[in-house]
Design a protein that fits this description.
323 residues, 14 helices, Diverse_Substrate_Transporter, Permease
């Protein structure tokens, strides 16, 4: 049975929850920044995902038990990479603005096809390379504020998180051990592995507050923020993606989710009080334009007939977990 036409009422109704996920993800930088300090990063991550993982286990217990030992090991390895993404993003976020964080992390959209083309020895179209260059120039300007200076440590950590996301996407697409694994089970094992990493970090001396100490210092607003990150930015987002890809095309879902940096910037400025100078505003516009352009080139590459390996544009479907 064919998927619903994208112009149909059913297609539009499918788009709305997916677009809401993009808004929720865009707001997650502001929410995480509100409940996290540099000393509480691992503790907050433990609290956040300790709520999520039991729900995922309960929802997919039968399929989770069906995973083979090889698939479990592969998913566990991916969980280590995922833990690195969460740590880089969260430590970066507490050292930079929510606007910068949301825009810099969007570079994953151009990093992934670039890395994939190198791995496969293929060539990307010149238009994609131009879009990537525009995005990188935008990030350079975005981090400058009122004048040219070195990027902050938080900006560099977010850049590292974008690179780590790229590694995660490539690993998921190329690891034989996880091919054919149920998506919910794969996500559950990865998040479980990430929580183990966070718990180990919390137990090490000098890594900040333990979860119970961080929780004791939370006010009502902090608990609401943590619940929002767990329930909406993780559980709601994951289940909406699973629901939507069965009713529309993965490329359409990816395109709608690609509006995340727009919402991150809008909410960071309107709600978070971020202030951008002229150079930063120009940089933000270039990042949004470059990633949108690159995504449109990527979508055309997916839709085009298969080309010889030496010249085909390699643009993998972006699979991501939200931090």
């Amino acid at each position: 049975m064919s998927a619903p036409a994208t112009g149909s009422r059913g297609g539009r109704l499918t788009d709305l929850p997916v677009l809401l996920v993009a808004v929720v993800w865009g707001s997650s930088y502001l929410a995480a920044k509100g409940v996290t300090t540099e000393r509480t990063v691992p503790a907050v991550l433990v609290l956040r995902f300790a709520v999520v993982v039991p729900v995922l286990v309960a929802a997919g217990w039968r399929r989770l038990r069906a995973l083979s030992a090889v698939q479990l090991r592969g998913a566990g390895l991916l969980g280590l990479i995922l833990a690195g993404i969460f740590l880089l993003e969260t430590y970066g976020l507490v050292r930079t603005s929510a606007t910068n964080a949301g825009l810099i992390i969007s570079l994953t959209m151009v990093f992934t096809p670039l890395a994939e083309s190198r791995v496969r020895g293929t060539r990307l179209p010149g238009s994609f390379l131009a879009a990537a260059g525009l995005s990188v120039l935008g990030v350079a300007l975005l981090t400058q504020g009122a004048g040219f200076s070195a990027p902050t440590g938080g900006d560099l950590l977010m850049l590292g998180a974008a690179a780590a996301r790229t590694v995660h996407v490539l690993a998921m697409s190329r690891m034989e051990s996880v091919r054919g694994a149920d998506a919910l089970s794969l996500t559950t094992v990865q998040l479980g592995g990430a929580v183990v990493v966070f718990a180990v970090l919390v137990a090490l001396p000098g890594t900040g507050s333990p979860p119970w100490a961080a929780a004791a210092g939370f006010g009502a607003g902090d608990w609401l923020g943590l619940l929002y990150l767990s329930a909406f930015c993780t559980l709601f987002a994951f289940f909406v993606q699973m629901w939507a890809v069965r009713r529309t095309s993965p490329s359409r879902v990816s395109l709608l989710l690609g509006t995340e940096p727009v919402w991150a910037a809008a909410l960071g400025i309107a709600v978070g009080g971020d202030r951008l100078g002229p150079l930063s505003l120009l940089g933000a516009a270039l990042v949004l334009a470059g990633t949108a352009w690159g995504r449109s080139v990527a979508d055309r590459g997916r839709a085009a007939p298969a080309a010889p390996a030496a010249t085909a544009a390699v643009v993998p479907e972006e699979e991501r977990e939200r931090a």
